[in-house]
Amino acid sequence: MRKKTGRRSAAELAAEFFDIPGEAAGASRVTITGCSRVQIENHRGIAEYGRERICVRCGRMTVRITGSCLELRAMNSDDLLITGMICAVAYEA
After folding, report:
1. How far apart are the first and last CA of the chain?
2. Helix ranges (DSSP H) in 7-75
3. Could you count the other beta carbons within 10 Å of the beta carbon of residue 10?
4. What distance in Å separates the CA atoms of residue 52 and residue 60, rounded to the nearest whole number?
5. Secondary structure E strands in the chain
């Protein structure tokens, strides 16, 4: 029986088939450390920025970080680091 794949890319399907990490196929990796730090690898840019909410584009989804005193501490073309008092991290399609 065949699984439904939705709208996944060929690279994502190949990564799953060959059992390699999704990051190799361009998928984003979100690392949360405690309640004060979120690192996102393979991002696609900032969609919204404020002291209480930061939204980051990650391919087909957006990662929404909410909290207080949020700050974009570091960012380059691949990775970014958000610090502050993190209350929630949500994924939106």
Report:
1. 26
2. 10-17
3. 8
4. 23
5. 29-33, 37-41, 46-49, 53-58, 61-75, 79-92
Determine the Cα–Cα distance for residues 74 and 89; give it in Å rounded to an integer.
Answer: 18
Which residues 6+ apart lie within 8 Å of 9 measured at CB? 25, 26
The series of mean pLDDT values per 10 residues for the chain, 93 residues long, is: 54 61 66 96 95 94 97 95 97 89
Q: Which three-class secondary structure state does DSSP give residue 20?
A: coil
Entry pTM: 0.76
Amino acid 87 reads: C
What is the sign, positive or negative, of the torsion defined by CA atoms of 59, 39, 89, 73?
Answer: negative
Q: In angstroms, rounded to a whole number, what is the distance separating the alpha carbons of residues 71 and 26?
A: 25
